[in-house]
């Protein structure tokens, strides 16, 4: 008998409370019933984003909200700065290219965080850059960037800071307002404990100034339409009603538990996963690791794609492999959303089993032992 478990950095497991809420018959969206749900959802989104700014909701994956940020802030020929230290940082550059935005890349070695000072230097040279695009947790490498320090640089300037927090919001701290982050982008299937299909952008007053002037083509993603509707607790177009109902439940659970408690849990779990990997003789890929996903270097004799495939197909345990240049070389385990210590015990046990079968020599049980010991500290 095979059971399926998700330990991937998106999608993540969905709690039964959320699944049940979504299993109710459809309701219409232009009704007081949906309006009440939508209003509560939007209030709780502000708690999640730690902001008083508007948070716009779109029916798309996280990348849609990234594209929304680009088209609402910039026009063809405008200058932007893109921090590229992994596959998702590079996506900012790819979207800018699609809209003929003139972008200055900051190429960071995969596995390390961007040096905030480097952003300050590039910004000094390119004072006309309207936007700096960054990533909080670079999910492809498991790196956490120091958004607080980066926001210190853009805060007093006319440049708007945009943060891709798709894998990190609700998992690690991001104080949108008190740090001075202008636009935060996230998606539904990572830290928010619901399936894929919703994405969000929070937009500061400073960023709103660019929204009025931007000339990039846009229609569904036009923040001006989103704002007009949101001001009336309404949506410009048909919302993904079922996902909004699920999100409302999930956000209530997050608020009940509190962000502080969730961040602390992820910190502990990530520390214990790292300890487990080291005890098995494995190396952590990221020099500046995030607490939501752990990227681990695969041993020489093990192709990580094969490892992922065997764990999933033979044992039902899904972790992620490496992307682009890291394909076959790393594997990634998420400590994100509805995942607790015993989900990870199961994941590490499966990892030990399959690594051993694939010929990697280590003492069975070492990883689990170190994981438990770290959590008992
Ligand atoms: C998952 C992820 C994305 C892409 O989100 P999709 O929902 O697949 O479009 C972008 N950035 C980061 C940091 C991610 O983790």
Please give a structural write-up.
The chain is α/β, with parallel strands linked by helices. It has 2 domains: 5-10 and 258-375, Aspartate Aminotransferase, domain 1 (Alpha-Beta Complex), CATH 3.90.1150; 16-256, Type I PLP-dependent aspartate aminotransferase-like (Major domain) (Aspartate Aminotransferase, domain 2). Helix content is 44%, strand content 15%. The protein has helices spanning 16-22, 32-49, 62-73, 87-98, 116-125, 147-155, 176-179, 205-213, 223-230, 241-257, 259-279, 304-315, 341-357, 366-376, and strands at 5-6, 54-58, 79-84, 102-107, 131-135, 137-138, 143-144, 160-164, 183-187, 199-203, 283-284, 293-297, 317-318, 330-334. The strands form 4 sheets. The protein has a 7-stranded mixed sheet with strand order 2-10-9-8-5-3-4, with helices on both faces. Strands 11-12-14 form a 3-stranded antiparallel sheet. Strands 1-13 form a two-stranded parallel ribbon. α1 (16-22) runs antiparallel to α10, α11 (259-279) runs antiparallel to α14 and α12 (304-315) packs across α13 (341-357). The protein is globular, with a radius of gyration of 21 Å. Residues 10, 61-63, 88, 135, 139, 164, 166-167, 187 line the site of pyridoxal-5'-phosphate.
């Amino acid at each position: 008998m095979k059971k399926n478990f998700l330990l991937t950095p998106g999608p993540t497991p969905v709690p039964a409370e959320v699944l049940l809420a979504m299993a109710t018959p459809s309701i219409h969206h232009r009704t007081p019933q949906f309006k009440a749900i939508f209003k509560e959802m939007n209030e709780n989104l502000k708690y999640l984003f730690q902001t008083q700014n508007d948070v716009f909701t779109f029916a798309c994956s996280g990348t849609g909200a990234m594209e929304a940020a680009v088209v609402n802030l910039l026009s063809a020929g405008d200058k932007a700065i893109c921090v590229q230290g992994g596959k998702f940082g590079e996506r900012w550059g790819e979207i800018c290219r699609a809209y003929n935005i003139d972008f200055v890349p900051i190429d960071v070695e995969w596995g390390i965080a961007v040096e905030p000072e480097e952003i300050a230097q590039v910004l000094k040279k390119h004072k006309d850059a309207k936007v700096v695009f960054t990533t909080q947790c670079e999910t492809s490498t498991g790196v956490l960037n120091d958004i607080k320090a980066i926001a210190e640089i853009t805060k007093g300037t006319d440049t708007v800071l945009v943060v891709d927090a798709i894998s990190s919001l609700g998992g690690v701290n991001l104080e949108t307002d008190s740090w001075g982050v202008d636009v935060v982008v996230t998606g539904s299937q990572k830290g928010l404990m619901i399936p894929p299909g919703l994405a969000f952008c929070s937009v500061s007053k400073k960023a709103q100034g660019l929204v009025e002037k931007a000339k990039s083509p846009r229609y569904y993603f036009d923040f001006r339409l989103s704002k007009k509707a949101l001001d009336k607790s309404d949506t410009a177009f048909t919302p993904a009603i079922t996902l909004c109902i699920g999100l409302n439940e999930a956000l209530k659970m997050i608020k009940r538990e509190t962000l502080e408690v969730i961040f602390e849990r992820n910190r502990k779990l990530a520390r214990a996963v790292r300890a487990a990997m080291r005890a098995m003789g494995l190396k952590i890929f990221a020099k500046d690791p995030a607490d939501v996903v752990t990227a681990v270097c695969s041993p020489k004799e093990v192709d990580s794609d094969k490892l992922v495939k065997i764990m999933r197909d033979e044992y039902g345990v899904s972790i992620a492999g490496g992307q682009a240049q890291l394909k076959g070389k790393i594997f990634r385990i998420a400590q994100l959303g509805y995942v607790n210590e015993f989900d990870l015990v199961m994941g590490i046990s499966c990892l030990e089993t399959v690594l051993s079968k694939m010929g990697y020599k280590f003492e069975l049980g070492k990883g689990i032992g170190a994981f438990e010991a770290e959590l008992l500290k």
